C-alpha cells in the first residue's frame, strides 16, 4: 500500500510497557501505528471518530440507572473471599447473604485507578499488543463446543482441531492473539486439558493468550505457563501483563465463585481481566436494548471495581456482549441492528470511563452463507464505529459461538484485513492526488499504461483472499466456486504452509517439565 | 418497534416541496422522520455524525486539485449546444475544439444556486422522497444487461423479468424509488423500449422513477409520461421535480452528446440530474484513490455547474462512483476498502458543497454467496457513514452491475431494512431503561415472563427476512437451507403477493393513448 508512510512514527511507543495509570488531565492515549514491512496487520489503530449513538444526557441516564442497580438491588457475589474483600473496600455486605450493594461513590472511586491502556505481552515481543486508546486488537474465536469444516462436517471439539485452529491463528498477522480454546478439546481429560492446551498455545504460536477462570489452580498453572513461555521472573511477569482471562457474570446480577476467584488470581498478579456480562435482551436482561445495556453496565462496573479492590491499577477491559434473542424461538441473535446499537453504546460507556473496550465479531449462521457474512460485517461495522479495542471471536465464530468453522475463520480473516485496510489513512500527498497523471492522460485516454499506474499497480489495492472477481464466463469454466469453496481450499493450503515459531529449547524443556510434573500430580480436581 | 416515538414530529415537514435555495447561514436541513404505522421504512433519516476520513486540509487539497483540472486541462464537451451555453456562462470555449476550460471562480459561483435539498415527487404523494440533508433514499438496481434467478440461471434481460423486478420494488417500502430499468429488456425494440418501460413504471409502481438520457426525444417522452402519471400540468411539473436521470461522464474528462442533452432537457424543466462520474482507479482514473476522487470531483463539478448554466436552481445530485480494479485482471472491484474510502471522501466533498450525495450498494460477486453479502455490507457501511442521500443500485446488483439477481434483491432489502433499524434512534426513555423490570427479576432470574417483556416482545426487535436462527439440529431437519435458498423462496412468494397500486383510470387511459400515439409515430430513431 502506498499509504503506509502516512502513519507518522511519532505515534509509536508512547505507551509504556506497564499499565499506565489514569491521568485525569492531558496525555493523549498512545497508539501503535502501522508497522514496517512484513507485518502489515500488526498494531492496528482506529483513528476514525467514534459514533455517538446516544447523546450525553442519554449516556448519563444509562450510567445513572446502572449505578442505581448496584446501589439499590446489588449483585449476588458467590464467593465468601470476594465478599470479604468487598466489605473491606466499603461495600454493603450483610452476614448470611450473598447480596452485596455498592454505593455509587465507591464504584466511581474504584474506577479512578483503572489503567486507560496497557501492553499485553507475548513471548515474542513483536507480538505484544497495545490495549486501549485507538488501538485495535483481534483475538481468535474462543470456547466453541463444536468444530466444522466442509469435509468433516460438524463434530465435537478435539485436540487435533484445536491445534489446527491455533496454527491458523499463528498464520495471519491480523489475528493478534489467540482467544480461549478456539474449540473445546473434549478428548483431553478436563483435569489436564488446560495444561495441554496452554502448552500448545506457547509452542504453536508466539502470540499472547488467555486462560479460563475455572478454579484457582488453573489460573495458577496458566500464569506459570505464560511466565515460562516468556522466560521471565515472577516479578517481571507481575509488572507486565502477559495473560488475559474472560470473566462473565451470570446475568442477571450474579458473579459466581470461579469467576470471582479468577479476578482475585489474575488481578492480584497484574494480569488482564476482561469483564464481560453476557446480557441477551429478552432473556437474561430486559427486552429493551437500553435496559440490557444498563444491566450490562452495572455488571461490568461491579466486576471492574472488584479488580481494583484486589489490586489498584490492575489492567482490566470493559466487555460488552449485549444482543437480542429471536422472539419466536428464544434463540440468541447476533449481528443484528440491536446488536449494533448495543456495541456502539457500550463503546460510549467504556470511553466515558476511560477503560479499554472489548466486543465481538458475531453471527448466528449455521453455514458459510450470505448470512454468516452480513451478520459478521454488521458486527464489524458496529465495533469499528463503536471504538472496540479488543475484539474477541474475531475469526471462526459461527452458530452464535457453538461452532468454530475453519472456512469462517478464513472469511473473517479476509474481512478483518479489509477493515485494517479501510482504517489505513488515505494517502493525500501531492503524488497521490495525481494531477500530473491526469495531465498526461487527458480527456478520453486511460491510465493503464501511465508511469503513475505502473509504479503502483502491484500494491495499490488490497488483494482479497476470497473475493472472486473473475468474469462470469471464466468463473463458470472454473466450476462456479462460491466463497465457501474458496475458504475451504484456503484454510487447507494455509495449514500446509504453517511453520512453528521459534522457541528457545530451554524454555520448551522447562515448559514440558512443568506440564509433566503437573500431570503427574493429577492436574486439577474436576468436581467443581 | 418501541422506539418509533423517539422521532419527534417536529422533524417533519420542514422541507419545502419545491427546491429549496441554498441558505448560507442558518436553517438546519429539513428531515423527514419515521412515519406512522404501515410504512416503517419510508422517509429514512440518517442522524449519525458522518465519518471524516480525511481532514480539512486534505479535503481542500482534493478540491483544489479538481478545480485545477477544470481550469488547466478542461473537459471535452461533445455537444455544440452545450459549448455555446458554457461560453455564454463564461467558460473558456475555443472555436474548433471540444475542449472547454472552467475558471475556479466560475465553478464556485455556479454551485451557489444548487439546492441543498428538494422533494422528488411520485404519482402517489405518500411516496414522495426527500433528497439531501440527512435524508436517505434507496433506489433499486438499474441498467443490468443480464438477469438471474436460481432456476432460470443467468440470461439476457427481457420484459417479463423487467416487470417482475419493478413489481418487487413496489413490494418493499424500503425501496423508495425505482432506478433506471432494473434489467434492460432487449426483447422490446430500442425505438419504443422507453415508452413501454416508463409506462410500466407508472402502472406497476406508484414511486418516483428515472429516465435514461439517450437522446432528446426520450427525455421529452419521459417527462410527458411522468407528467401524465402525476396528473398535473406542465407548469406544476416544472415546479416539482418528478423524474430523475443519471448523467455519467465518459471518464476521463469527457461529457458526451446524449448526456449533455439530457442535462439540458432535464435541468431546463426543473427535473433531477444525478451527475455521476464512473471513475475506476487504475483504469479511467488515476490508480490512487485520492487521485481518482480528484478526477471524480472535477467531472462531477463540471456537470453540476452545467445544470446551473442551463437553469439556476435546477435540482442536482453529486454522484460518486469511484472504485478500484482488480490489478491482476483489470476487472472492476466493488465493496472494497478502497471503495469505502472513496465513498466517504465523496460524501465529505458533497457536504462541503452542500449538494445532495448519491452513491451505490455494490459488489462483484457472481452468485449469492458470502462475497455478495460482505461486499454489499461494506458498501452500506461506507455509504451510511459517508452520508449518502440517494443510493442507487440499492437492491439486486450483482457481478459489478452486469446482472440483476432476484435473490440478491431480497438479500439487499433485508440488509437495507437492518440499516434502517440501526438508524432508528435508540429508545432511552425511563421505561426503556427498565429499572423496574430489573428490580422485579433481581439477581439470578430471567426476563422471559416479566410484564416489561410481555408488553414488548412481539415488536421489540427487527424480524429479518432471511436470517435463519434455528438451531443446527432443526436447521438440519429442514434440509440445511442457505440464505440463497431462503431468498429464492421469498422473492417468488413476494411476487405472488404483489398488488398493483391504484391508478386513476383517466390517467391510465391518457398514458396508454400517449404511448400508442408515440409508437405509431415510430418511437425514436435508433441510429444514435
UniProtKB/TrEMBL annotation, chains A, B:
Q: Polar residues composition bias: which ranges?
A: 1-18
On whether Metal-binding is a keyword of this UniProt record, the answer is no
What InterPro entries does the record point to? MttB-like_sf, MTTB_MeTrfase
Q: What's the domain of life for this entry?
A: Bacteria
Q: What GO molecular function annotation could you give as one example from this UniProt entry?
A: methyltransferase activity
In residue numbers, the region (Disordered) covers 1-42
Similarity-based family: Belongs to the trimethylamine methyltransferase family.
Protein name as it appears in the record:
Methyltransferase
Q: Name its species.
A: Peteryoungia ipomoeae
Amino acid at each position: 500500500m502506498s499509504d503506509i508512510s502516512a502513519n507518522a512514527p511519532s505515534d509509536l511507543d508512547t505507551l509504556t510497557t506497564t499499565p499506565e495509570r489514569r491521568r485525569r488531565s492531558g496525555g493523549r492515549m498512545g497508539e501503535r501505528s502501522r508497522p514496517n514491512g512484513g507485518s502489515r496487520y500488526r498494531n492496528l489503530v482506529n483513528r476514525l471518530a467514534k459514533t455517538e449513538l446516544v447523546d450525553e444526557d442519554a449516556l448519563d441516564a444509562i450510567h445513572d440507572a446502572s449505578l442505581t442497580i448496584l446501589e439499590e438491588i446489588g449483585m449476588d457475589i458467590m464467593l465468601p473471599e470476594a465478599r470479604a474483600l468487598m466489605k473491606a473496600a466499603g461495600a454493603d455486605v450483610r452476614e448470611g447473604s450473598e447480596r452485596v450493594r455498592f454505593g455509587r461513590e465507591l464504584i466511581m472511586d474504584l474506577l479512578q485507578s483503572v489503567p486507560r491502556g496497557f501492553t499485553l505481552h507475548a513471548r515474542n515481543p513483536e507480538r505484544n499488543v497495545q490495549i486501549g486508546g485507538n488501538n485495535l486488537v483481534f483475538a481468535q474465536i474462543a470456547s466453541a463446543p463444536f468444530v466444522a469444516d466442509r469435509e468433516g462436517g460438524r463434530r465435537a471439539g478435539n485436540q487435533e482441531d484445536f491445534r489446527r485452529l491455533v496454527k491458523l491463528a499463528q498464520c495471519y498477522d491480523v489475528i493478534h492473539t489467540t482467544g480461549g480454546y478456539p474449540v473445546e478439546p473434549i478428548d483431553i481429560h478436563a483435569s489436564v486439558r488446560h495444561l495441554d492446551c496452554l502448552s500448545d498455545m506457547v509452542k504453536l504460536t508466539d502470540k499472547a493468550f488467555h486462560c479460563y477462570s475455572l478454579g484457582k489452580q488453573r489460573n495458577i498453572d496458566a500464569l506459570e505457563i505464560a511466565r515460562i513461555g516468556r522466560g521471565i521472573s515472577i516479578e517481571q511477569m507481575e509488572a507486565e501483563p502477559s495473560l488475559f482471562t474472560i470473566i462473565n457474570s451470570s446475568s442477571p446480577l450474579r458473579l459466581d465463585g470461579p469467576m470471582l476467584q479468577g479476578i482475585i488470581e489474575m488481578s492480584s498478579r497484574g494480569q488482564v481481566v476482561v469483564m464481560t456480562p453476557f446480557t441477551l435482551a429478552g432473556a437474561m436482561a430486559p427486552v429493551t436494548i437500553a435496559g440490557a445495556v444498563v444491566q450490562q453496565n452495572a455488571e461490568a462496573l461491579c466486576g471492574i471495581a472488584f479488580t481494583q479492590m484486589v489490586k489498584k491499577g490492575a489492567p482490566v477491559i470493559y466487555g460488552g456482549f449485549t444482543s437480542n434473542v429471536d422472539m419466536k424461538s428464544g434463540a440468541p441473535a447476533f449481528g443484528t441492528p440491536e446488536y449494533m446499537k448495543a456495541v456502539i453504546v457500550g463503546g460510549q460507556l467504556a470511553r466515558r470511563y476511560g477503560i479499554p473496550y472489548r466486543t465481538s465479531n458475531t453471527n448466528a449462521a449455521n453455514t458459510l452463507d450470505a448470512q454468516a457474512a452480513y451478520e459478521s460485517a454488521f458486527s464489524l461495522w458496529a465495533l469499528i464505529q463503536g471504538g472496540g479495542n479488543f475484539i474477541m471471536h474475531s475469526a471462526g465464530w459461527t452458530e452464535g459461538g457453538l461452532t468454530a468453522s475453519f472456512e469462517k475463520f478464513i472469511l473473517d480473516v479476509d474481512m478483518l484485513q479489509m477493515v485494517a485496510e479501510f482504517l489505513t489513512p488515505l494517502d493525500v500527498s501531492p503524488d497521490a492526488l495525481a494531477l500530473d497523471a491526469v495531465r498526461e492522460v487527458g480527456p478520453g485516454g486511460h491510465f493503464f499504461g501511465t508511469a503513475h499506474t505502473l509504479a503502483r499497480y502491484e500494491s495499490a489495492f488490497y488483494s482479497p483472499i476470497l473475493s472472486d472477481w473473475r468474469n462470469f464466463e471464466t468463473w463458470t469454466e472454473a466450476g462456479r466456486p462460491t466463497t465457501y469453496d474458496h475458504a475451504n481450499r484456503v484454510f487447507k493450503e494455509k495449514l500446509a504452509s504453517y511453520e512453528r515459531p521459534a522457541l528457545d529449547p530451554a524454555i520448551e524443556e522447562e515448559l514440558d517439565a512443568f506440564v509433566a510434573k503437573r500431570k503427574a500430580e493429577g492436574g486439577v480436581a474436576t468436581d467443581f
